[in-house]
Automatic annotation (TrEMBL):
Signal peptide: none
InterPro entries (alphabetical): Hexapep (IPR001451), Hexapep_transf_CS (IPR018357), LacA-like (IPR039369), Trimer_LpxA-like_sf (IPR011004)
UniProt keyword Acyltransferase, yes or no: yes
Domain of life: Bacteria
Keywords, in A-Z order: Acyltransferase, Repeat, Transferase
UniProt key word Acyltransferase: yes
One annotated GO molecular function: galactoside O-acetyltransferase activity
Name assigned to this protein: Acetyltransferase
Catalytic EC class: transferase
CDD domains attached to this UniProt entry: LbH_MAT_GAT (cd03357)
Classification via Pfam families: Hexapep
Length: 204
């Protein structure tokens, strides 16, 4: 890992910090170059998984990320096992992102850990803040969802397509909207029907 522990500690700590060219820019370019190499490979190329495991902070078993995807760093993102991400995933991962086992992420999803102060003079000085995103086990995030800094999504929850997730979503919930809100808990109805009154076949 080219970036120093000092730089990671700055990005992963709470509160405002300032971009440090000496600490961060060279290391980020190395990560960008690795990302370019990953996206240039065929999905079936065995080198792709090896590069992904070097690129990310952590990557469990049976992880599949469709090409192409984007990330600020990669080395702040932790993947659980048996996870899947569809096309055009974007990771703004100056802060840490934790993705639980068996989680599925739809196309064009953006996970944003980092923002900038509203105060103009601080933005001119390249001030920013990063808060971690925690996505639980067996979560389904629909297409075109954006998750903002500091959000936790609980185990088993479903986030509907095109949602803007600004606040925590509890476990075992169906949530959607902009801003995203809990619509209902996952319940007995879901044991019988998979979509719009269509029954789950017996034996499944």
């Amino acid at each position: 890992m080219a970036i120093s522990q000092e730089a990671l500690d700055i990005m992963h700590s709470p509160g405002i910090y300032f971009w440090d060219e000496k600490l961060m820019s060279t290391a980020q370019q190395e990560q960008r170059d690795m990302l370019h190499d990953i996206n240039a490979l065929k999905a079936s190329d065995p080198r792709r998984e090896r590069l992904l495991r070097s690129f990310f902070a952590e990557m469990g078993e049976d992880v599949w990320i469709e090409p192409t995807f984007s990330a600020n760093w990669g080395l702040s993102t932790h993947w659980g096992s048996h996870t899947y991400a569809n096309f055009n995933l974007t990771l703004v991962d100056d802060g840490e992102i934790f993705i639980g086992d068996h989680t599925m992420i739809g196309p064009n999803v953006t996970l944003v850990t980092t923002g900038h102060p509203v105060r103009p003079d601080l933005r001119e000085r390249v001030a920013q803040f990063s808060e971690p995103i925690h996505i639980g086990r067996n979560v389904w995030i629909g297409a075109n969802v954006t998750v903002l800094p500091g959000v936790t999504i609980g185990d088993n929850s479903v986030i509907g397509a095109c949602s803007l997730v600004t606040r925590d979503i509890p476990a075992d919930s169906v949530a959607f909207g902009s801003p995203c809100r809990v619509a209902r808990p996952i319940n007995e109805h879901d044991n019988e029907f998979y979509w719009r009154g269509r029954r789950i076949p017996e034996g499944l």
